[in-house]
Amino acid sequence: MKILLIYPYCIDERPRDYDVRPVPIGVYYIAALLKEAGYDVEVLNWYNINKTPTKIAETLKVKRPAIIGFSIFNANRWGAIDIARVAKEIDPEVKVVFGGVGASFLWEHFLKHFPEVDYVVIGEGEYTFLNLVRALEKNGRGLEEIKGLAFRGDEGPIFTGWPDPIENIDSLPNPARYFTFQHVVSARGCPFNCTFCGSPRFWGRRVRFHSPGYFVDQLELLYQKGVNFFYVSDDTFTFQKKRVIEICQEIIRRGLSITWQAISRVDCIDEEILYWMRRAGCVQISYGVESGSEKIRRFFNKKISAEAIKRAFELTRRYGILPRAYFIYGSPGESQKTIQESIDLMLEIKPLSVVFYILDIYPGTALYEEFKRRTGATDDIWLKRIEDIMYHETDPDLPAEKVLAFGRRLKKEYYRHLPRFLREIDLVEKRDLYPHHADFLTRLAMTLRYGDYARNPQIRGKDSLAEHLFARALKYHPDHHAYLGLGIIYQQKRRFKESVKILEEGRGYFPSSEPLNICLGISYMNLGDYRRALECFLPFESSPEALSRAAVCFQALGDEARMKACLARLKALKGVSA
């Protein structure tokens, strides 16, 4: 029996798709359990298959699945429906299963309106899906006994009830044995109760933890496959301090040279946690600030104080971890005054990255239930081919242009002050963190030079700020990228002697670095010192860039024979690569 687990596409185009690109980790857990039960299962990341739609039918015709499971959050439900329709046209007998957060809260809607959907897995899906597969092998006998399942009966949709939580989530097979991914979780659930979030209802406001050993085993298996950067997707990674420190210490003990990002709350952080997280490779923590207005935070049931927010951002930054803030605007009661309160708080906490969201309403949240009571809407609203409902669309006091203006104001003020935030970074004086401080400052400089900030015209003085950060990084510790970045900046400013000086210093620490040597050689060429330039290029005889520049040096020195030899070698290399 062939089983496909598909992560479908969203219907709205995104300028950057990093938030919808990764397959949810739950899909890999289900797939791993199915594999260990002996089933032929494959995971397909079809988040952008709509760009080549003919591949949908072509792939399904080749793979001929008996069961297709779709991972649904609200924004990709129409992508799943579209693919399911194609699958049913190819093979009317194929069984289509929806699961995930989006399916769990709209199970009746899907079964009522979409005949392509045969079953909905509700809540934690591993054992429900496995038991469904086993029941389908027996022609559907025993479906009513499977907790966490919804399907059509003779008299309408049947729901068997929410499944019992898996008390020991370490008992699940480790998906890293079978699959490669970057988004990982060390725990399931969140004890808090924000009105805009579906987690409280989905997980029941409980947190269940993987043991440090299980979680780090997963990281190590993925690291051995070449993954060295991770997104830890726990709702609140630092909720249990002792366990977080044990995870970090185990990462260090095993010598895993990884970097990672996490999500936390401002009232679940302290200096000891931050110290060990940074030592273990954490480079960013995202915090839900939501608003500078205490009134709006109360509406969200976000029980955090301004003092806790300020303390968390100051400490995170001091330990060389990038503090990222989530802000939500367009809430009921939003005004120029509340936006100014958000700006004032933002200028005080000095986040080094910010994501601004317009308030959305999603099924499964307290906000959605309030919306239905207030407007008389039903789940049938999702028959529209839309991804979400923005709150301001339901509130006559918040016209769209007013809300968009709020967003423009927030972003303008943030990017106007970001250079000051970067120049005012104050790092904790702990010598064992100096290499991490150098890395932190270098990463910030590279973001200004090559990352998202480089493309942002609202940020002024990016090059001089990057130069400042690279130079400051090198005061803490020799950093390869800082030497290279600073050398390139000096070159571009035609300060070739300074470029040579800093690159020679860097080459002293990293003598075999091809980028440092080539950059250094270019500076020597610009100074007319072709012999020293050749000393930088010639050790890299398999590098087309080094060879082409060495040929120029030989030509300048009048050594035509060696120039031709370089060009011949270059031609041979290009022939092999072609």
TrEMBL record:
It comes from the Bacteria. One of its GO terms (cellular component) is cytosol. Pfam families: B12-binding (PF02310), Radical_SAM (PF04055). InterPro entries: BchE-like, Cobalamin-bd, Cobalamin-bd_sf, Elp3/MiaA/NifB-like_rSAM, Methyltransferase_Class_B, rSAM, rSAM_horseshoe, rSAM_sf. Keywords: Iron, Iron-sulfur, Metal-binding, S-adenosyl-L-methionine. GO terms for molecular function: 4 iron, 4 sulfur cluster binding; catalytic activity; cobalamin binding; metal ion binding. Its cofactor is [4Fe-4S] cluster. The keyword Metal-binding applies. Coiled coil: none annotated. This is Radical SAM protein. The lineage of its organism: Bacteria, Pseudomonadati, Thermodesulfobacteriota, Thermodesulfobacteria, Thermodesulfobacteriales.
